[in-house]
Amino acid sequence: MEIKVDLISDTGTRPSQDMRRFMAEAEVGDEQLGEDPSVNRLCRMAAEMLGKDEAIYLPSGLMANQISFAVHTKQGDEIIMDQTAHPIHYESAALAVISGASIRPLKGEGGIFTVEQAKEAIRDDDYHSPQTKVISIEQTTNLGGGRIWPLERIKEIAELAVDNNLKMHMDGARMLNAAVAADVNPAEYGQYFDSIWLDLSKGLGAPVGSVLAGSAEFIEQARFWKQRLGGAMRQAGIIAAGGIFALEHNVARLKEDHKHAKMLAETIADQKGLEIDPDTVETNIVLFSVADGKADLFADELLEKGIRVSRMEGKLRAVTHLDLSLEDIRYAVKHIEKTAKDIFV
Ligand SMILES: *Cc1c(COP(=O)(O)O)cnc(C)c1O
């Protein structure tokens, strides 16, 4: 079956013709020597955007998380994060292998925990316990359903971190979705974090990479880890240019994706057998339940119509992005309604 509307992830976005042209003309140099002008330009843009001294270009978001944790911890230290966090589920246990740090998972709401929860999770100074070193938050929450960490909550948690001598890390895979939806300048988030990154290869539409920002001292250590993990590149300006193009053209338009997600959520909420609270859909992720254990059946039936969604922890997930037009969303809406009626009415 040909896939007409692919809602599986915003990682599916492809570089547009304009982006490809821009990439083809990029100035390049040896990135590993710090001599690639396009990579350097992208890093300056990201550092400025996030209000940090410097930034470093990396092949993936996963590497941005792992390098940050490697800099902030040593073996046996502990990192506080929500139980739905990406490093727990989708990073092939890299934390155990690379830093050897352990995780203190918290049971937040939609991936967002409270200051009280974080406070309780900080270990006492006692040789029986691991030492807490980092609080990590995910903006937006992925398995939590694309929820936005409010700036006020971040500020309170950051104050707690400062009081307890902990580092603050933001897994900002979709932080620009949050910034656009909540109308927050990304630097306002940036001020509360020792390490913060954004993914260029998701809703922003670039083919490769993430940018990790922090203090000059942090980035110096991050560069060491990047080299150690084999993340240093050569004429990477070709791909970094996709990131420059994305930051220049594809940020404000994330609003469209959020509008589309809301349309899907409202449709889903109206169907017998499907469940979601559309008010919880704040960005581009639509996580919904299907009654009577029929999630697989529902996904299969949608696929018959050329609509692909993903299966996550017993739920279904639809993610909107820049390769999906209003027409595509209308097509999905129509078939979600029809499929729900076929199965549940
Ligand atoms: C996708 C994602 C990552 C990893 O990014 P990659 O670029 O795929 O390596 C990390 N955290 C979250 C929340 C993500 O959604």
TrEMBL record:
Assigned GO CC terms? cytosol
Q: Which GO terms describe its biological process?
A: glycine biosynthetic process; L-threonine catabolic process
Gene3D superfamilies from the UniProt entry:
Aspartate Aminotransferase, domain 1, Type I PLP-dependent aspartate aminotransferase-like (Major domain)
Q: Does the keyword Lyase apply?
A: yes
Gene Ontology molecular function: any one: L-allo-threonine aldolase activity
Which InterPro entries does its entry note? ArAA_b-elim_lyase/Thr_aldolase (IPR001597), Low_specificity_L-TA-like (IPR023603), PyrdxlP-dep_Trfase (IPR015424), PyrdxlP-dep_Trfase_major (IPR015421), PyrdxlP-dep_Trfase_small (IPR015422)
Positions carrying N6-(pyridoxal phosphate)lysine are K202
Report whether Lyase shows up as a keyword of the record: yes
EC number(s): the record gives 4.1.2.5
Instruction: Alphabetically list the UniProt keywords.
Output: Lyase, Pyridoxal phosphate
Q: Which cofactor does it need?
A: pyridoxal 5'-phosphate
Q: Pfam families in the record, alphabetically?
A: Beta_elim_lyase (PF01212)
The UniProt record lists the Aromatic amino acid beta-eliminating lyase/threonine aldolase domain at 6-288
Q: Which family does it belong to?
A: Belongs to the threonine aldolase family.
The protein's name: Low-specificity L-threonine aldolase
Q: Which organism is it from?
A: Halanaerobium saccharolyticum subsp. saccharolyticum DSM 6643
